UniProtKB/TrEMBL annotation:
It comes from the Bacteria. The chain crosses the membrane at residues 22-43, 63-85, 97-119, 139-160. Residues 171-191 are annotated as: Disordered. Keywords: Membrane, Transmembrane, Transmembrane helix. Residues 181-191 have a biased composition (Pro residues). This is Permease. The keyword Amino-acid biosynthesis does not apply.
Amino acid sequence: MTTGEVQSSGQKSTATVWRNRAIMTLATAAVLVIAYFILASFIPRWWAQRLAGLVHGSFTQGIWWGLVFGLLFTLIPLLLLLLAVRVWRRRGGKFTAGAAVIIALLVSLPNLMTLTIVLGGNNAAHAGERILDVDAPAFRGACLVGAIVAAVLFALVVGLMGKRGYSRHRAAKAEQTTTAPPAPPTTPDEL
């Protein structure tokens, strides 16, 4: 029997297992690279056209929808990530924490797609910028303002939660010291 063949107990050798893992990793990486290039040329144009259809060339609509998208699709993912961190600390919360992270990523997709238009350097991103300039004016700036407001609100929530936790900790510590019985005397002078 050669290395890599199935052994008599029905288990594969470690070389076969590692070879299969390497092949799967390379195949997955190739698929992801191909998907990236396809999506990088498709997503910015497509997303800009969806926004243009929503705003219809109106500055007021551009500002309104930009604020809504920036605020909601930043604040909700941040709160979900906070939930994931808090759940992760508890035992058995790894599945829920992982689900919260995945949902946070999905909810943040509108802002991430807008970011591919703003920061992208390829032709699709430039086409998306032109579409937004004409058909969705003021959307990008309002989206940024909404995201900043969401980050400030999130910082306030975290600060209030931290202050509440600190107050609870101090109250529990104070209660513990006031209800503790006095220590018995340890030296003959204290008797």
